[in-house]
Amino acid sequence: MDLRVFNIHFTYIESENKTLCHHCKKKYAGKSMHNLKRHLTDKHQEQANDTNVKYREKRPASTSTADEAPPQKKLKKLVASDFIRSSVELVVLNLLPYSIFSMKAFKDLIYNHQVTTGITMNYCNAQKYVTETAKALKQKIKLEVKDRMIGLKVDVATRLGRSVLGINIQFFSEIERKILVRTIGMIEMHRRHTAENINLIISSLLGEYGIDKRSVASFTCDNGANIVATAKLFQNYQNSLLLCDELEELGQQLNDEEIDDEDDAENFDENGPLDIPSNIKDALKDITSVAVLVRCSIHTLQLCVHDSLNDIKKDYRNELDEIRKVVKNLKSSTYCEQIKSLKIKVPGIDVITRWNSSFIMIRKLINIQEDLNSLFEYFSGDALEKIKLETRHWTFMQKFYDAFLPCYNLTMKLQSSDVGMGDFYASWKKTMFDMKDNLEQNEFSKIVFDHMRQRSIKLFENNDILLASLYIDPRFNFNGRQFFSDTQNCRAEVRLG
């Protein structure tokens, strides 16, 4: 029943919070459309029909009788491929050990499935199926990347004395019409993390997947010196491959040419200097690596935040440590009973090396500020001092939250798997633009903004692949807008051509 029909039959009296029926002058509490429609169709059927008002009573949930059987879900027929896939996922995705297939309880659980499918799933067979699945997945990736330009992403993580080199590739799939990400290697490293060693592993993996090194368009990495050196070494290797290709092509052209001048042929000195034609010199001079070094945007953003926090700590040495100590004290048994009675959700203690965990801790504290003020009333003396947050703490937290919220949102946004160069550039620039309004009111925001501006140079300067991406992006380059300089236009066209 829309508002026009409602006004024909009823009037809502706001001061009494009641609805008056025009036909019987009876008043109803509130203005529930459900009750009013039922009243109109039960008591004033003729008027309801005139305005096409119908009421269909909902069937109560308890109307089912004992004779009526509840609807049964259709059982899915278990086939061998589904049984194998589920067993592999238990190990690969859910990280359960192979020994689970040797446990009696689990054997009893899957016994009927083994009989139905005719497959025996034990410790050895599970390993075999995981290996076969990995081979099938590798073959699928080979077909996906065949004759395609790809972006290479490399990083090294060290934890508890173990180092793992992670390598994945990005490429556009014409079938799925989106950017796909495939991890092609998680290799534990037992040698030094030098550029030479890392490059050998990368070259070996690319060979396993049938990826031609000439087809790598970008090499994305963090700002670590060894990884950057790896990228430059990879570029040099690409240059050597391209140079060999060019020399082979030019050599073929020279072999096909006939020497028409007999005098030149007779006077040719094998030991003399080789006179290379100018067109060949120009061709060799123009050879440049296909792969462009791209600095990881998220890692660069984290460096901006890290530098900003160091600057902030120069003037605010103890605030964050004191706030962290209060959160730790709130988790002690002294305050447990009152916190439960007030239903306060105490935030987790942050990890010192993870700034976003400090941001989340502060955000949650701001959200429960009123609840904490109520909690303070229950305690006094030393017990209160351990959890008391002063005005300077709340001021620090609000400034911290306002300054780092744009960075936190940008970090979350850039973690999506299908972020293109244009999306990244737009998000980065928008974050800096949004921060400008708060620079005068919040000193923390100005510090973060200045570091983002300084770090932008490494991200955007001399980055031809970014220029090429923006050149074909209609959000930045369209008729009537001078987004690029003439030099940048030329560089973008050369990269695309």
Description:
Residues 43-71 are annotated as: Disordered. By secondary structure, the chain is of the alpha/beta class. It has four domains: 3-56; 80-138; 146-243, Nucleotidyltransferase, domain 5; 297-461, no CATH class. The protein is 55% helix and 11% strand. A five-stranded mixed β-sheet has the order 6-5-4-7-8. The longest helix has 32 residues, at 225-256. The two termini are 62 Å apart.
Number of strands: 8
Instruction: State the low-pLDDT regions, or none.
Output: 258-269, 283-287
For the sheet with most strands, the description reads: 5 strands, mixed
Secondary-structure-based class equals alpha/beta
Radius of gyration, in angstroms, nearest whole number: 35 Å
Characteristics:
alpha/beta, Nucleotidyltransferase, domain 5, 4 domains, 5-stranded mixed beta sheet
Short description:
The protein has 497 residues and is of the alpha/beta class.
Topology:
Elements: H1 3-9, E1 10-13, E2 18-21, E3 27-29, H2 33-43, H3 45-50, H4 80-92, H5 104-117, H6 123-145, E4 150-159, E5 162-173, E6 178-189, H7 195-208, E7 216-221, H8 225-256, H9 262-266, H10 278-285, E8 292-295, H11 297-315, H12 319-330, H13 336-342, H14 355-367, H15 369-376, H16 381-385, H17 391-414, H18 421-435, H19 443-460, H20 464-471, H21 486-496
GO molecular function: DNA binding; zinc ion binding
InterPro entries: RNaseH-like_sf, Znf_BED, ZnF_BED_domain_contain
Organism: Chironomus riparius
